[in-house]
């Protein structure tokens, strides 16, 4: 079993559909927000155990659990076919997030949180030389992994070609010569946004498989943004364009409602 901790992450996991919650551990001297988790657990038929803070520290392996630790079934990566099926079922334009070598778990979690908030039908990461799902990622994602499927693939370039065969336009996010300002690109249709690693950006082979390379215009002295910030800007430029065309992503609440 895996552990999710932190009030937001636990609450979303109790309400989510992708991972089954098994057992909830709460601080014995609970606040009003922790009491709300008791109600969520009851609605999900999840047993609640009350513990002292030192017990929760030991269980979570960290003191930063906010008094809530949830045992959930092991995280299961989705297949690419699952992501495509989710897109077709949504009857909305595709908005996939592809991450090329993100290694910082906080960046990965933040990107997944942005993808869920933007109504993305799923995210794709490589199996090698990239961060995988950990409790730190789960906490940074603030429960997004309970709602947005995450696919792990052996060959990212091959997966991009498969998306292309489905009619998805691949946009690589990178600066430099030859890139188009993202505000001039069409993100209202079926698109996959590819975000490169924190240090070197898009790998050459991945960049070659992009239909277009776009960049975020920088107005200050700095020449680049944190990967999670850049990804969020790109995702919500897609949201803005879709709302302008009367076609918001798969549920503005990120859950397809």
List descriptors.
Alpha/beta knot; 257 residues; 20% strand; alpha/beta; seven-stranded parallel β-sheet; four-stranded mixed β-sheet; 2 domains; 36% helix; 9 helices; 60s Ribosomal Protein L30, Chain: A; 11 strands
Short description:
By secondary structure, the chain is of the alpha/beta class. It has helices at 7-15, 32-43, 53-60, 80-90, 105-117, 135-141, 156-165, 204-208, 227-244, and strands at 2-5, 21-27, 48-51, 68-72, 95-100, 122-126, 150-153, 169-173, 180-181, 191-196, 212-215. The protein folds into 2 domains: 2-72, 60s Ribosomal Protein L30, Chain: A (2-Layer Sandwich); 80-244, SPOUT methyltransferase, trefoil knot domain (Alpha/beta knot), CATH 3.40.1280.
